[in-house]
Amino acid sequence: MDFRLYASILWRFRLIVAAGLVLAIVAAALSVVRIGPGGVGYRQSELWASTARLGVTQQGFPWGRLFAQPPTSADGSVSGGASGRDQIPIANPDRFNALAILYAELATSDPVRALMLGDGPVRGQIVATPLRDADSGVLLPLIDLTGISDSPEGSVALTSRGVDALQRYLETEQSSNEVPSSDRVVLQELTRPMHAQVFRPRSKTMAAVVFLAVAFATVALVFVLENLRPRFRNVDESAQTPVSSAARRRTA
To answer: What is the spatial distance between Cα 107 and Cα 101, in angstroms, rounded to a whole number?
Structure first.
């Protein structure tokens, strides 16, 4: 493979090569951005995500108590002079873990989305995930609710709206079904969506593909023109002809 010959051919058609490279750069840029009446903008949106963490619990901070029921005396009365707040029974912790799975599904359900739409258009997506312990794999009474949108501000706002809608839906259903306050499940916001991170950056694959396609097409055009007008091949043949004639005369 004679690289010097190829380089000479490209240099011969250097104006076409230069024009092809400029066209490749412009085409690659236009595959990423668009020019319109509003100015220059990206063709593909960058997606951002922010997350809020919810705890599935009940009133009375059950994680600070040892007994499922307040201790009672022999006659059945609450011992120790416990107040009404202290008499709230503690649910089985496994119950909260199972409810975390259910509430994660409710977070993306149609009723909750309808509540969100009551506050305005929903621009983005809500994803809710029940958490497990990383080492043991045990399900935890925790839910990560993530809002995905095309801007950091939109992502944070969407996550906050999702948390609010899920809490309102739960409270509305509890009230309409007359669930006693002491028996109600509480969704406690443990971590608020303060910051957003890039969820999906803008892809540069299309720009690279367009640039390479135009560059290869330019090189192919140059070699097609060389085959139609083979200057270097004619020079080689003309240089070989005198040598061949002289060799024939010496042989004769």
So the answer is: 10
